[in-house]
Design a protein that fits this description.
Elements (H helix, E strand, L loop, with lengths): L23 H6 L3 E2 L2 H5 L8 E3 L11 E8 L9 E6 L2 H12 L3 E7 L6 E14 L10 E13 L16 E7 L29 H13 L4 H6 L2 H14 L9 H11 L4 H8 L4 H12 L3 E5 L5 E4 L12 E5 L5 E7 L5 E8 L8 E8 L5 E8 L4 E2 L2 E6 L3 E5 L21
Helix pairs in contact: 6-9, 7-9
The structure holds zinc ion.
Length: about 425
């Protein structure tokens, strides 16, 4: 997939793949087929030549080590899959060496401006890679890794350091940050007489809220502290929120859940970084619950024109509504999928080459307000595949805005192009 507007004249036949030869009988006989969202999570566009790596590194908080790191355009949270294609021989050689060693490398996170080193990053462990045995100097390297641990640079920059200094892999010393997960610190600051009515269930009811208030009244601790430490209450709010966008496979433990939510909420780079630097999982969840309550629309980062509404966000990958995908140039995009978008204009012809969603062609989508690239429209090659169409928006090209803020006037979306003729 390309980053910018390109001439796709070689791929201007949207139906040149599996769609050809659909006659009317087939169309009417074929049952609707829902897209298998595990296909997108498998990153099959990277090819079948990746080999699983054995052995895992278990790192404790406080672990200090020297690892190769490279700049990324945003915060990547532990738990995310990181598909990468390193087209540069230097980077490929450094990574090939790391794969033979402990399989670890780091992605550096920029500061709020996106241009300077924040001092934070995430350690990733390669779990599948193109064969590197016997090749000390591969010219390029394709692999998949899992983000595992947040880290801080051991030598935090004293003054602003541009992130582009880390455009190529460089070795730095890092320290793994702790993931604090308090148990129930307010367990002893409660009305024991209410214990019979407390339930260990996952649901939250007005009675639970009432009991929290009663506990707070008779102890020195304010009500908000009881709310911060009430994991089940926060989990329920998060579950309800993601249920509205049809995704209910949430991680169980507070640390994994807090990272998953950070990965899957539509957030500004500033809010993402704020969630990233927090060591306490319950505090991160508390911040996320507050962010959830802000209903928002997704806007073009360049001109703030509205592109999509929150309620149109849906999951096209079993990993969630946001996923990372790499293009042929080695650029890793962070994509949020939406069922419909407005104020966009397509550029170039549809292509099925290196499509992140097997069975769909992609076409570059630009913001009509400023012609900035905001993502791609994906169209099903077969008429029985559902959804027939959706958009993948780049997280670093769109950003959320509270719905209450002034909006640009609504422009109706352009009429859909005619379907390719059935032969
Ligand atoms: Zn724009």
């Amino acid at each position: 997939m390309e980053d910018n507007a390109v001439d796709n004249s070689d791929h201007n036949e949207p139906d040149s793949g599996g769609g050809e030869g659909l006659d009317e009988d087939e169309e009417t006989d074929e049952e609707e087929q829902q897209f298998d969202i595990s296909l997108a999570a498998s990153h099959s566009y990277m090819g079948a030549g990746l080999v699983a790596m054995s052995g895992r590194s278990v790192l404790e908080a406080g672990w200090v080590g020297r690892v190769p790191v490279v700049a990324h355009h945003g915060a990547v949270f532990p738990g995310e899959t990181v598909p990468m294609l390193l087209p540069h021989a230097h980077d490929a050689a450094v990574l090939a060496s790391a794969i033979r060693n402990d399989k670890l490398f780091g992605l550096l996170c920029p500061d709020e401006s996106g241009t300077m080193v924040s001092g934070y990053g995430v350690l990733c462990e390669v779990f599948e890679a193109g064969l590197v045995d016997g090749q000390d100097a591969p010219s390029s390297l394709t692999f998949k890794a899992r983000a595992n641990h947040r880290f801080r640079l051991l030598d935090m920059p004293k003054r602003s350091v541009p992130i582009h200094i880390y455009k190529r892999m460089r070795f730095v010393e890092v320290r793994v940050l702790p993931e604090v997960q308090p148990g129930a610190p307010l367990r002893h600051a409660r009305l024991a007489s209410l214990d019979a009515r407390r339930r260990a269930s996952r649901t939250t009811t007005p009675l639970d809220s009432h009991m929290r208030s009663m506990d707070a009244v008779v102890t020195p601790w304010p009500l908000f502290l009881y709310e911060i430490f009430d994991y089940q209450r926060m989990r329920q709010i998060i579950k309800d929120y993601f249920k509205t966008i049809m995704f209910d496979k949430l991680p169980e433990d507070p640390v994994s859940l807090s990272f998953w939510v950070a990965s899957n909420l539509a957030l500004s780079p500033r809010d993402r970084l704020a969630l990233f630097v927090v060591d306490n999982a319950l505090l991160r969840l508390h911040m996320e619950v507050k962010l959830i309550s802000r209903k928002s629309v997704l806007c073009c980062s360049s001109c703030m024109g509205e592109i999509a509404r929150r309620e149109h966000i849906f999951a096209m990958s079993s990993e969630g509504v946001h996923s990372n995908y790499t293009n042929l140039g080695g650029y890793m995009h962070d994509i949020v999928t939406v069922s419909t978008a407005i104020n966009t204009e397509l550029n170039g012809a549809p292509s099925a080459e290196y499509s992140w969603f097997p069975g769909y062609t992609w076409t570059i989508a630009l913001c009509v307000g400023c012609m900035a690239h905001v993502g791609w429209r994906f169209d099903a090659l077969k008429r029985n595949l559902r959804p027939q169409r959706f958009y993948g928006l780049c997280r670093n090209h769109v950003q959320p805005r509270a719905a209450a803020e002034p909006e640009r006037s609504y422009t109706p979306p352009p009429p859909p192009p005619p379907l390719p003729p059935a032969s």
